[in-house]
Amino acid sequence: MPISSISSTSQNLYSQNENSIKNQKDLFTGKKNEHSIFLEHLMAVAGPSRFGANALTFAQLDRSMDIIKPQVISDHMPIFYSFPSEKNNTKIFSWNLLADTHKNNNYQNIEIPESIYTIPKNELEYFYTKNKISATWLYYDLSTEIYLSKNFSKKTIINEILLGSNKGVEYLLSFLNKEYKQSRLADLKKGNQDIEQSLRNREIARNSLIKHINSLPHNELCNSDIYSSIVKSLKINHTINNGSLSIANRERTLINNDKLLRKISENDFLILQECFNPKLINEKINTQTINNKKFNYIEHKYNNSDDYCSIMYDSSKYTAKYVEKFHLGRNKPCIMGLFTNNTNNHSLIMCSIHYPGEEKNTENLSQIISLIDRVNIDNTEDIYIGGDFNQIKSELETKYNLLPSITSKALGLKIISAQGASMSGPDWNGAYQGKTIDHMLTNQQGKAKALDIKYLK
């Protein structure tokens, strides 16, 4: 589901000779660098007409921090669904816009050096998630403390670290041994422990990491996997907070793309997950509509997150009769709405869903179906349950088929997915490489298509 609006420089990445791409090596480790690895991934799963936001971002990270910024919007591919029928000829646009709160997942793209696993687990417990060291928490914590430190306010100092010079190694070691142990600039990892306990666990983990790095030969440190991973974390930190993945840059890219907004406005419903500014997006889309079409919007977020869920609908064609705002799992906001066609009074149920990917049972899916049953009184409504399900189609089908057949009127739904809408984010090299995790469950006949890249140039 990758998407980005691509500069001419970005497009030239694909014109490089395939062999030269595969032969690129990291200056520090002698291994293939992130540029090469991500381009190989794109060639394997995306094809020359599909580009992933994260892939492009990583491909253009250079050691001087003078990053060529691709015009990234999200790491998901927008999908169009069309459902032609006599009662409701419905067009739906679905997109996960990558909320600011989830950008730290990009640290998962950094491999944990094997030597770090030699540190006793009980000492590094703070950096662990589910019996595995979390690259997100390890590299977020370290890179954030470096970037927010007053001692690193000069760009020249950061650049020395990025270059792996002798001065850079000295700067890094000095920071680790003097400041990193006690600094509290990075956010604490959320968990079940109280703040003081989390602070103690973090200090223990940092001390163990520092001790391990100090044990390495300093004259060889710049060539180590650990040093290389720290460099990558600094680049990701820069990209997330000041570069192409910053909320300001991505929002600006979207609202200034009239061609894309015009294409989006051709639909009847827009179902958005991880939407960073529903009100502004709705306003900008309304500047591109024709034939007196006007979108209204419904938004929902859980607690104080910036992770909005939204349904935008053509109010000249549909009226919202009932809205249910809820969340799945720990914090995934979702919306269900009952809408009536203003012309023929026929009803439909529209859901914008952000589904927890770690779920192994049917609890969340049962919750959605139960909500639909409450408004699907006469069992005649069109049903559309769409969005980011964080799982491939076969996994969702398995859960759906496990639902008791006697408990719901909303059974017999089909799952529709768009071919080519592949994942290119932090999970790109995991179980979902090149596979679609955005879907639509519906009782209608229809089809799905990923957005043509021409609307994003």
Automatic annotation (TrEMBL):
Q: Which domain of life is it from?
A: Bacteria
Question: What InterPro entries has UniProt attached to this entry?
Answer: Endo/exonu/phosph_ase_sf
- Write down the Gene3D superfamilies for this protein, in alphabetical order: Endonuclease/exonuclease/phosphatase (3.60.10.10)
Q: What is this protein called?
A: Endonuclease/exonuclease/phosphatase domain-containing protein
**Which organism is this entry from?**
Providencia alcalifaciens 205/92
